[in-house]
Amino acid sequence: MTAFRIAACAGALAVLAGCAASVPRPPPPAAPAKPDLVVMVAVDQYSAALFNRWRSQYRDGLARLQREGIVYDNAYQTHGLTETCPGHSTLLTGKTPAHTGIVGNSWYDGVAGKAVYCLAAPDYRDARGDPKAPRVGPTNLVASTLGDWLKQASPGSRVVAVAGKDRAAITLGGHRADAAFWYIDGFGFTTYAAPGEDAAAKLAPLAALNAKVQQAYVPPPAWTYRHDECRALEASYRIGGADWQSGLPPMLPARPGEAPKPARALQIMDPLTLEAAFTLIEHYKLGRRGATDLLAISFSATDFVGHGYGTAGPEMCEQMYRLDGLMGRLLARLESLGVRVLLALSADHGGTDFPERLARQGYPQARRIDGKALLAGVNAQLRGRLGLAHDPLASPDLMQLYAVDAAGRQLAEPQRARVVEAALEILRTQPEVAAAYALQELLAHHPRGVDPELMTLRDRFAQSAMAGRSGDIVIAYQPGITVAPARLTSYIEGHSGPYDLDRRVPIVFWWPGAPAQTRILPVATTDIAPTLAHIVGIGAPADLDGRCLDLADFDSDSGAGPCPAAAGAPPRP
Questions:
Q1: What is the CATH classification number for the domain harbouring 286?
Q2: Among 205, 162, 204, which residue's Cα sits nearest to residue 184?
Q3: What confidence tens digit (pLDDT) does each residue in 73-89 have?
Q4: Averaged pLDDT for residues 535-562
């Protein structure tokens, strides 16, 4: 029973006592309280497999979330191209990438004839003033976010986001965020500035922390062991023609005759992100000004560890323990505010281990292929079959393929249709390819109301497909295959795509006094935003892909009541 229900029961007893003793009737109870602060925590590449693998080992914040929160351990990113930018775009929009516009970490611009970063925004500039820094902003996000809805309903509310990556902070913060910061090695936290904005003023909330980073973390401290059980996972592997020893501190591959140098200090990223979040809580007085505020935090180090070192070695072992401790500090800080807090935790995507270790563990289908060579072979066949003098397929990611002319620009019809049809025939004969779909087929397919657990590959890729951005063809490689190049300590495993290890993530809702529950029926990350909007009591767009989830006590205590019946598609289980 929560404190709010205890108060209600006490009031009821007082009324009964008053009837017997003829004492004055107490005043009516105060209106139910909505959350003062909503906190969205995203953990980059935090698969349900990782969550469940380490559940019994957690002792701090992640253990508390399990004991005290509502845990959905069978939740999904429902789309097929599972990457950081599209995955984060689903968390607070309630929409799939097909409707957020963020179809991948990058896509190919057929008009310009070049690859485009998911958050490229030429009208914005990096607040550091670095002319070489990428220009990023929320322009390409075509959906609104929970923060945007909150600002529309309550202009006095504040929306703040902080992350290790720009594509996390910006997609979570939305279009009307008061602040959206991300981490830069050796500098601290930066943000974007729109035309006419004072860049120094935009950086000011974290200026002191940035000064600390530049003084105390350049060079960064060594990444060393804290747990002996992690050290026990060390092993040697042959990856990409080079021998590699997993373990801490990780070292960059050295050229002959040179001493190895320390790899990137990933262990400082999440703690600094948390410190930035604490600083922003105080700077903006989040949750303490009489209006509901939103704080979004994305911890990015798990993703860098997964890509650079795999998901089952000593590096990830240490990362899981440290993440547990960080979450403990976050929960303690939120409780110390003395305000009504509602926290949600999830992930942008999952991930799998690198193929060399998987093969050693008994998965012979796990292997690394040269995706560029595969694409070159398909292009060679297309040139011969169609009588072309140029490669007709371009790709920014070896998953989305675009039909292009000799200048690298989008082919006009009917040549485009001829290239796509011929390419599909060739791709579907490749043993490494599990499936290949034409964009037009995916755009015509609308899998609304489908249980996320039962979605076909076509269902999943349809939720990644958007005209004008998605590839003319999308590929699913066979399970266990990676096309990631072998760049030791930085990228030895990529994004495998539409399979459950990449789609399945945890979703947890927590607040002080929450009823501890584990719910096993499948839900989607697009369900988070409408659920939070319902509890806060703000309107959400009618065309969301997600649905509201009933959160037991918090629904009634806040006055929100049960979720309204969803319009349109039949509800998922």
A1: 3.40.720.10
A2: 162
A3: 999 999 999 999 999 99
A4: 84
346 shares its domain with 377: no
Q: What is the pLDDT of residues 247-290, one digit of tens each?
A: 999 999 888 888 889 999 999 999 999 999 999 999 999 999 99
Q: Do residues 131 and 199 lie in contact, with contact meaning Cβ atoms separated by under 8 Å?
A: no
Residue 99 clears pLDDT 80, i.e. is over it: yes
**pLDDT value of position 8:** 40
Regarding whether 41 and 148 lie in a shared domain, the answer is yes
Residues 6+ apart with CB under 8 A from 5: 553, 557
User: 419 with 538, same domain?
Assistant: no
Question: Which residues 6+ apart lie within 8 Å of 56 measured at CB?
Answer: none
Q: Based on the domain organization, do 311 and 188 belong to the same domain? A: yes
234 within a domain of the structure (yes/no)? no
Same domain, 292 and 340: yes
The whole-model pTM stands at 0.92
What element of type H or E holds 39? strand 37-43
* C-beta of residue 538 within 8 angstroms of C-beta of residue 153: yes
Q: Sorting pLDDT into bands at 50, 70 and 90, what band is 7?
A: very low
Residue 97 in domain? no
Contact 112, 131 (CB under 8 A): no
Residues 80 and 171 in one domain: yes
For residue 287, what are the domain limits?
37-46+66-91+118-228+259-323+336-360+534-542
Distance CA 501, CA 461 (A): 16
Q: Which residues, 6+ apart, have CB-to-CB distance to 33 below 8 Å?
A: 4, 340, 557, 558
Q: Is 116 exposed, middle or buried (0-12, 13-18, 19+ CB in 10 A)?
A: middle
Positions marked active-site: 84
List pLDDT tens digits, range 18-62.
434 445 555 544 455 789 999 999 999 999 999 999 999 999 999
In a domain, 303, yes or no: yes
Mean predicted confidence (pLDDT) in 110-135: 96
Same domain, 178 and 285: yes
Residue 339 token pair: 């305000």
Residue 383 falls inside a structural domain = yes
Nearest residue to 38 (alpha-carbon basis) of 306, 315, 344: 344
